[in-house]
Amino acid sequence: MQTELKMLNQYITESEYIVFFGGAGVSTESGIPDFRSKDGLYSQKYKYPPETILSRDFFNSNSSEFYEFYRNKMLFLTAQPNAAHLKLAELEKCGKLKAVITQNIDGLHQAAGSRNVLELHGSVHRNFCVHCSASYDTSSVIESSDIPRCKCGCIIKPDVVLFGETLDEDVISQAVRHIASADMLIIGGTSLGVYPAAGLIDYYKANKLVLINKSETSVDSRADLVIYGSIGEVLSGVMM
User: Fold this and answer.
1) Phi and psi at residue 77, in whole multiples of 5°?
2) Are 53 and 65 in contact (CB under 8 A)?
3) Positive or negative: CA dihedral 119, 81, 147, 53
4) pLDDT, tens digit, for every residue of 156-178?
């Protein structure tokens, strides 16, 4: 891996507009399970498939069961940023990294100090009333005995993109702009199997496309540098 790390450091030295695109593998190193690995949510047995429970239709029709699953399996509020989160925040602070585009909803990039974070799938730390749009923090979800309710009496919904919902157009627009402007794109901790988010990388047109993942992805052949390994371990080898 030393040869790959040397090239990664060279790319970073030469670049002025780096963008990071990350997935669940960035957060698994903080103890947050993903969906698709052998220990992920899809491998566990539930009354309904996780993608059904985490759909807007299920949220509307089975709110109590949705929140039982959501509290037990989607909230990891004691998780801490890992080496990958911290290195990305450091790269932003020194002016190299212009944006973090993440598919994760845990807020760990912000906790590590990153400022320009585009959350494609929303955040568990934001919640809102489906009727009056009043905002609530996560404690309102955790402390409710069943379905969290707004002061107006209507249900509170996490500000996360459920199956059957569309991504926020403004977030997508910003992500496209950053990726198209980047002279280096680092993709880490994702198999690039979730669309439409994964399709955003098609807007990258420069020649420093770096993939860091524990296993192969569908776009490895397009990359200028592929590193198989832990995202935290690899980014820890970046010299500032």
Assistant:
1) -75, -10
2) yes
3) positive
4) 999 999 999 999 999 999 999 99
pLDDT of residue 36: 54
* 183 and 16 Cβ atoms separated by less than 8 Å: yes
What is the secondary structure of 19-63 as a DSSP string?
Answer: EEEE-HHHHHTTT---SSSTTSGGGS--SS-HHHHTBHHHHHH-H
In terms of Cβ atoms closer than 10 Å to its own Cβ (0-12, 13-18, 19+), residue 108 is buried
Residue among 185, 175, 182, 138 at smallest CA distance from 158: 138
Q: Locate 182 and state its tokens.
A: 């980047």
Do 184 and 16 meet the contact criterion of CB atoms below 8 Å apart? no
Q: Is 109 a catalytic residue?
A: no
Residue the block writes with tokens 């759909």: 55
Q: What is the pLDDT of residues 89-139, one digit of tens each?
A: 999 999 999 999 999 999 999 999 999 999 999 999 999 999 999 999 999
Distance CA 32, CA 9 (A): 28
Catalytic residue among 121, 125, 131, 178: 121
- Looking at the DSSP bridge assignments, the partners of residue 186 are 20, 210
- Domains of the chain as residue ranges with CATH: 1-32+80-121+166-240 (3.40.50.1220)
* Alpha carbon distance, N-terminus to C-terminus of the chain: 18
| Cβ-Cβ contacts under 8 Å for 91 (sequence gap 6 or more) | 12, 18, 97, 238, 240
- Amino acid letter, residue 147: I
